[in-house]
Design a protein that fits this description.
The protein has three domains: 85 residues, Up-down Bundle (Four Helix Bundle (Hemerythrin (Met), subunit A)); 32 residues; 36 residues. The chain has nine helices and no strands. The chain has 195 residues and is an all-alpha fold. The protein starts with a helix and ends in an 11-residue tail after the last helix.
């Protein structure tokens, strides 16, 4: 009974933080709400006895990817007015996608409540070992493709932050090395003042 209360309360926090991710006016706040959503999802994985997935979610997404997203959002000059213009235009598609996700969650919960009980696990069962076995045998190609897509996303995010800005001032070391005294200093001969 207590486990169900904790599960549904964490599920409510996860839904609320997911909603705040897409409705936050400030992109940095949206990223921070996404961090909260990842932590809550990790807590749900812990309740479902998938400890490895919970730790991997925290380490990989919160520890690495979300920090990268936060830096990209803070380094890019995002025009908030242009972002808000497309909200009403994209709202119907977002409602359809959100409706499908809610239907999926209701279906999963209904099956869990009225469906069959999960089969009991054997005594020496390790979900980490089983996950590794399935991931590196049956889904090896999908895992490699996901790794390549993640690498491309990271390189793209870095490339977006390295664009030239008009208001930034930079030094050119090669021009500094080629500089000669005659180009920089002009000696002016002036008669001395007499008292």
């Amino acid at each position: 009974m207590l486990e169900a209360v904790v599960f549904y309360s964490f599920g409510g926090v996860l839904l609320l933080s997911g909603l705040l991710v897409i409705t936050a006016r400030n992109p940095v706040h949206g990223v921070l709400f996404l961090v909260l959503a990842f932590f809550t999802a990790a807590a749900l994985w812990l309740l479902l006895q998938a400890e490895f997935l919970a730790i991997a979610l925290v380490v990989v997404y919160v520890g690495a990817v979300m920090v990268l997203f936060l830096f990209v959002v803070m380094m890019l000059d995002i025009n908030l007015e242009r972002v808000r213009e497309g909200f009403w235009r994209n709202l119907p598609v977002a409602l359809v996608v959100g409706g499908v996700m809610v239907w999926e969650m209701i279906t999963v919960l209904a099956f869990r409540i009225w469906g069959a009980d999960p089969k009991p696990l054997p005594a020496g069962y390790s979900n980490t070992k089983e996950l590794g076995r399935v991931l590196y045998t049956q889904y090896a190609y999908a895992f490699e493709i996901a790794a390549v897509i993640l690498l491309v996303a990271i390189v793209s995010a870095i490339a977006l932050t390295l664009r030239r800005r008009k208001d930034s001032r930079a030094q050119d070391p090669s021009a500094q090395v080629r500089a000669r005294r005659e180009e920089r200093v002009r000696l002016v001969s002036m008669p001395s003042e007499k008292e």
